[in-house]
Design a protein that fits this description.
The protein is α/β, with parallel strands linked by helices. It has helices spanning about 15-30, 45-55, 70-85, 115-125, and strands spanning about 10, 35-40, 60-65, 95. About 35% of the residues lie in helices and about 15% in strands.
């Protein structure tokens, strides 16, 4: 865990961890608390850390640079839907790159996820959440 939080869990890896941390900071300025999980390893996947966090916050946003279709975030979202279904207060969201072939290096910045802050804003709720089973 790179940053503790209580309203939403941002799950990222690689270069998108900084993007998730920036979104968490922006959410904090608006009074929302976003937890940031740095996966560090895609295989093996750290189910325990991620599911404990999502069950506690009730909300999850997966952030990655790959395309949305068949991207790694789809696997993470599927695992969360299976393992945290009764704890989720909103659908698992994915903030991803565009569904296009990966661009040459000089164009990478225009295809990376930039809407993490707005996704965090729309997903995170303020106030106290009801107790979970």
């Amino acid at each position: 865990m790179r940053r503790p939080g209580s309203d939403v869990t941002l799950i990222a890896y690689g270069g998108t961890v900084d993007t998730a941390l920036e979104a968490a900071e922006a959410a904090a300025e608006e009074g929302r608390s976003a937890e940031v999980i740095d996966l560090r390893s895609l295989s093996p996947f750290d189910d325990e850390t991620v599911t404990v966090s999502v069950r506690r916050t009730g909300r999850a946003i997966v952030v990655h640079e790959a395309s949305r279709f068949c991207g790694y975030g789809a696997e993470v979202a599927a695992r969360l839907s299976e393992q945290c279904f009764h704890y989720l207060e909103a659908p698992v969201l994915r903030v991803t790159g565009f569904d296009i072939p990966y661009p040459p290096p000089h164009l990478e910045n225009i295809t990376c996820p930039a809407s993490t802050a707005s996704s965090t804003r729309s997903t995170a709720c303020s106030g106290r959440k009801p107790a979970r089973p």
